[in-house]
Specification:
With 154 residues, the chain is α+β, with helices and mostly antiparallel strands. It is built from one helix and eight strands, in the order αββββββββ. The strands form two sheets. Strands 1-2-3-4-7 form a five-stranded antiparallel sheet, with no helix packed on it. A three-stranded mixed sheet has the order 5-6-8, with no helix packed on it. The N and C termini lie far apart (77 Å).
Length: 154
C-alpha cells in the first residue's frame, strides 16, 4: 500500500471515530433532556426575589448567575405562570448584580423594569406567550436618556 492510501485511510478512520464520539455525546445529551436529567454545571445561580402579579397568576423571578472567573455576574428575570407552572426564560437580563433594579407590576399583565443603567442591558425579550407585556420605565440611573427642554426632534 502506498503512503497516500495509508494517509487517506487513517484520516477516514479518524473522521469516523470523531463522528461517532460526537454522535454519542449528542445522544446522551438528548436523552438527558428527554428524561429531565440535569448534569453538573460550572455556573452558580442565586435567587434574589419573587414578585407576584396583583392577581397572583404570574410570578417574576429575579436572580443572578456567575459562571466563573472569566465572566461577570448576569442578572435575569423569568416569568412563571402559576396555573400551568410554565417558566418563560430570558425576559430581561443585565450585566452585573441587580443592585438597584426595580421590578413593578403595573397591572396583572404588565411588568415594568426601571432604575438600572441602560448600558448594562444584555437582553430584553417580549414573550407574548407568557401573557405579560414587559416595559422599561424611566430611571434615575439613565438621566442622559431623558429629553431636555432644549432637545429637538428632526
Amino acid at each position: 500500500m502506498s503512503i497516500v492510501v495509508k494517509v487517506k485511510k487513517a484520516v477516514w478512520n479518524l473522521g469516523a471515530v470523531l463522528f461517532f464520539v460526537w454522535l454519542g455525546f449528542k445522544s446522551i445529551g438528548y436523552g438527558m433532556d428527554l428524561l429531565g436529567i440535569e448534569g453538573a454545571s460550572i455556573c452558580s445561580y442565586t435567587k434574589v426575589a419573587e414578585f407576584p402579579s396583583p392577581n397572583g397568576k404570574k410570578i417574576a423571578k429575579l436572580g443572578y448567575s456567575d459562571c466563573g472567573a472569566t465572566t461577570n455576574w448576569q442578572t435575569g428575570v423569568n416569568i412563571v405562570d402559576v396555573d400551568t407552572e410554565k417558566e418563560f426564560n430570558g425576559i430581561f437580563g443585565l450585566d452585573g448584580k441587580p443592585e438597584s433594579l426595580k421590578i413593578v407590576w403595573e397591572s396583572d399583565t404588565k411588568l415594568t423594569f426601571s432604575n438600572f443603567p441602560v448600558d448594562k442591558l444584555l437582553w430584553f425579550n417580549q414573550k407574548y406567550s407568557s401573557g405579560v407585556k414587559v416595559t422599561i420605565g424611566e430611571s434615575s440611573a439613565n438621566e442622559l436618556l431623558k429629553p431636555t427642554a432644549n432637545a429637538s426632534v428632526e
